């Protein structure tokens, strides 16, 4: 049997407007989730290195739980499992944002911890010796230096989280992949549409990489 | 070096240490150390590495807690096993420290390094802190480097910035923890010159160093520490030329031989 496949450019271009309807969802879940995840990461990352075990232990537990379970299971749990307890359904968009936030928050906690711990103790000692309080020493001396070192791994996490949103097609959020699946079901142009989806993800992640590189170059004058 | 008449050594003690004991775990680092430093005095502490001399001055500004004895700095009694933050804060405002590794803040320019503490701790307005920073940078001979970052300076210049940064808080006592040990030989002189000037102006200083020439010339008193104990102290001429303790003799013959 003769089999010939020809890439159908027209089908691909036709699918793009449809796919682009999913783009706002992908971006909203990614960046909404990452923004919350960043806040969680700072809070739990700093708590995890606190000398008080009552603070560090729960933080470490959070990190281990959300880093050690698949994000797909997390989002299914939030979307299908949680309503059983709270008695009301969860909006899929909210479930997606929550999953990215909790998951990236756990990874970002580790980035924060590593960044802060990488700063030489002498920096803290110099700050304290000058009469600065612990808080002042941390926020005006340690944190700015730690944050610069955190930029590359944060960028890494952002890229991972953006791609993770593709899994949320399973809970019916109309993001890129879901839009594609719906379109393919009607047109049977899987190759072209998934190709277009891949390119769209690549465009998001590449622009982010580029942006981060610029920030890094500008920020790293002296460290 | 003798004090000028305008800056005599007073009788007011700024550091009063009695029977101080300090442990790192099971390791007994400081053993029953008695030491009083009066205002205007320059005390140089010498000893082999690991003898506890750095730890001794780090106790004075509370970077290290101690486990026994009493320590009073600038009239403020410190507590065993960790002094409360408020007392530490009061003491550290009055006590400057210069580190072996400079510990400048790499994310701030030279000038901002100096302005940070006066603005944050003493709430000095920026114009005042800026003027102070410029004056101090000129004083340590690097007025033209104000807007550079620490990594753009040589080691000797960095250490002079660190001294200026401490001076900006107008301390009553300056602690120097091996300030020239991390420097290339040709840069040691410029840092010692600044310290010499400070001593001449009457600054109370405690200096941990291996620079015996500096100790002999600038110190009012030299203290030799061996295994956490002060085994000998006195005027530099006495300690260097006529050491009484055999440990001191052995140490000095080792370091002065080359």
Can you characterise this structure?
The complex is a heterodimer of chains A (223) and B (258). Chain A has 223 residues and is an all-alpha fold. Chain A has a single domain (11-217), classed as MetI-like fold (Orthogonal Bundle), CATH 1.10.3720.10. Chain A is built from nine helices and no strands. Chain B is an alpha/beta fold. In chain B, helix 3 (110-121) runs parallel beside helix 5 and helix 4 (126-139) crosses helix 5 (155-167). The model of chain B has no long low-confidence stretch (mean pLDDT 92). The chains are: A mainly alpha (223), B alpha/beta (258).
List the main descriptive attributes of the protein structure presented here.
heterodimer; A: 223 residues; mainly alpha; MetI-like fold; 9 helices; B: alpha/beta; six-stranded mixed beta sheet; 38% helix; globular
Task: Set down the secondary structure blueprint.
The complex is a heterodimer of chains A (about 220) and B (about 260).
Chain A: H1 9-20, H2 23-48, H3 53-68, H4 71-86, H5 92-117, H6 121-129, H7 134-164, H8 176-187, H9 190-219
Helix pairs in contact in A: 1-8, 1-9, 2-3, 2-5, 2-7, 3-5, 4-5, 5-7, 6-7, 7-9, 8-9
Chain B: E1 13-24, E2 27-38, E3 42-46, H1 53-60, E4 68-73, E5 76-78, H2 85-94, E6 95-98, H3 110-121, H4 126-139, H5 155-167, E7 173-177, H6 185-200, E8 205-208, H7 212-218, E9 221-226, E10 229-234, H8 236-241, H9 246-257
């Amino acid at each position: 049997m003769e089999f010939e496949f020809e890439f159908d450019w027209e089908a691909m271009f036709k699918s793009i407007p449809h796919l682009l309807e999913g783009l706002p969802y992908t971006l909203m879940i990614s960046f909404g989730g990452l923004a919350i995840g960043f806040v969680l990461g700072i809070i739990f990352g700093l708590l995890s290195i606190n000398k008080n075990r009552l603070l560090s232990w729960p933080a470490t537990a959070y990190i281990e739980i959300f880093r050690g379970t698949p994000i797909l299971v997390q989002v299914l749990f939030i979307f299908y499992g949680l309503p059983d307890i709270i008695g009301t359904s969860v909006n899929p968009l909210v479930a997606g944002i929550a999953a990215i936030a909790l998951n990236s928050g756990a990874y970002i906690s580790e980035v924060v911890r590593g960044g802060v711990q990488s700063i030489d103790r002498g920096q803290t000692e110099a700050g304290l010796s000058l009469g600065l309080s612990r808080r002042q020493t941390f926020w005006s001396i340690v944190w700015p230096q730690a944050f610069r070192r955190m930029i590359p791994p944060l960028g890494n996490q952002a890229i991972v989280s953006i791609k993770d949103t593709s899994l949320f097609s399973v809970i019916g959020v109309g993001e890129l992949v879901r839009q594609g699946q719906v379109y393919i079901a009607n047109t049977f142009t899987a190759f072209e549409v998934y190709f277009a989806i891949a390119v769209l993800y690549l465009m998001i992640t590449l622009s982010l990489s580029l942006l981060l590189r610029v920030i890094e170059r500008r920020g790293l004058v002296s460290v | 070096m003798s004090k000028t008449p305008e800056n005599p050594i007073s009788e007011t003690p700024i550091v009063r240490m009695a029977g101080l004991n300090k442990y790192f775990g099971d390791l007994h680092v400081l053993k029953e150390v008695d030491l009083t430093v009066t205002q205007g005095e320059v005390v140089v502490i010498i000893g082999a590495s690991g003898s506890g001399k750095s730890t001794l001055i780090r106790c004075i500004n509370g970077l290290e807690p101690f486990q026994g004895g009493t320590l009073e700095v600038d009239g403020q009694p410190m507590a065993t096993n960790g002094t409360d933050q408020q007392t530490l804060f009061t003491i550290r405002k009055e006590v400057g420290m210069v580190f072996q590794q400079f510990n400048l803040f790499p994310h701030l320019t030279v000038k901002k390094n100096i302005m940070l503490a006066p603005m944050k701790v003493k709430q000095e307005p920026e114009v005042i802190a800026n003027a102070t920073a410029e004056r101090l940078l000129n004083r340590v001979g690097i007025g033209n480097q104000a807007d550079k970052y620490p990594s753009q300076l040589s080691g000797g210049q960095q250490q002079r910035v660190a001294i200026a940064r401490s001076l900006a808080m107008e301390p009553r006592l300056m602690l120097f923890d091996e300030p020239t040990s991390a420097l290339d030989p040709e840069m040691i002189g410029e840092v010692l010159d600044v310290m010499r000037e400070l001593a001449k102006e009457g600054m109370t200083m405690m200096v941990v160093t291996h620079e015996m020439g500096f100790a002999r010339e600038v110190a009012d008193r030299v203290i030799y520490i061996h295994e956490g104990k002060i085994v000998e102290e006195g005027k530099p001429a006495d300690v260097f030329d006529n050491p009484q303790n055999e440990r001191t003799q052995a140490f000095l013959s080792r370091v002065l031989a080359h």
